[in-house]
Amino acid sequence: MNIIWFTWKDLxxxxxxxxxxxxxxxxxxxxxxxxxxxxLVGGYENCKNExxxxxxxxxxxxxxxxxxxxxYKHFKHKLQNWADVIIEEVNTIPYFTQYYTKAKRVLIIxxxxxxxxFYEMKFPLxxxxxxxxxxxxxxxxxxxxxxxxxxxxxxxxxxxxxxNNIDIISMGTDxxxxxxxxxxxxxxxxxxISLGRITSMKKTIDQVKAFEIAKxxxxxxxxxxxxxxxxxxxDNVKTYISQSKYSNDIxxxxxxxxxxxxxxxxxxxxITVTSIKEGWGLIVTEAASQGTPSIVYDIDGxxxxxxxxxxxIITKENNYHVLSQNIVKLLNDTKLYNEFQENxxxxxxxxxFEQCYKDFIEILKEKIIE
Length: 370
Hints:
6-stranded parallel beta sheet
């Protein structure tokens, strides 16, 4: 079948993240199964307007704001009668394909923004965005949806989506689990890692403050932060680190490669995640695959990727004081640490893109092209 996939960005985009990895893995498997796939996405500086990647075509136009209209124009002028199935990925702003094509269609929604508006946008845009999202998701709620977690499914049901129209696919990771946990090489001193974008919604400073408190009880504790940002919050994080009395024990690594990330996860002892919302929290699963347990805030997405007191710890309260208490607790309890390490590693083996694609294609065949 011929599939057109509307999404904000593809895997080559400088700001590509976990959602784009999932898209890539599904798209290339669709091609391998004999389907034709075209992604309509936004462009970026010096990008190619069109190219073929792993068998699927990528057509880039506009930017992150104008791509919704430019993709619509390209579809209406060149692809309207080509598609058998439309995949519309909703990343904050929908494409509203339901209003300009009668083709069979499914939405992919990793997460709703909700409270994220108040962290990522300034007043009054945050209020406007929050209200508009509450309105436009209700215009979409008769559609069939694929999502990645029970948390997002519950969010969708709250805004009127029908339970039977929402299906969950397994997440996947392209990082292979370590072969064994025996004699796993860790840093010589207990080390916490913070990975991902450094933005206000990730609350990176909470992780630094939790580290500072925990270090009072674990004097040789270290913190490594890998990620990037481009706003005032990012600058504030760097300033806070430089002024910390433990600045010599905090290492900012900047943006790192996939191989560097994998090695860092394998060598570290803990990963902390303090976001206000996630679709799943893939970094937690990836770290578990390398033998590194997690301590996370009790938020949507992380409740799905962490099994509390089995693969890691979900804090009772979302603040850095409670986070620090759990850091000390886990690092000082070797038996508990080893249990979390083993359980997380075993679970990560089941979170594969093979299962992700199997779930996806079964839903497509049974509910979309039925």
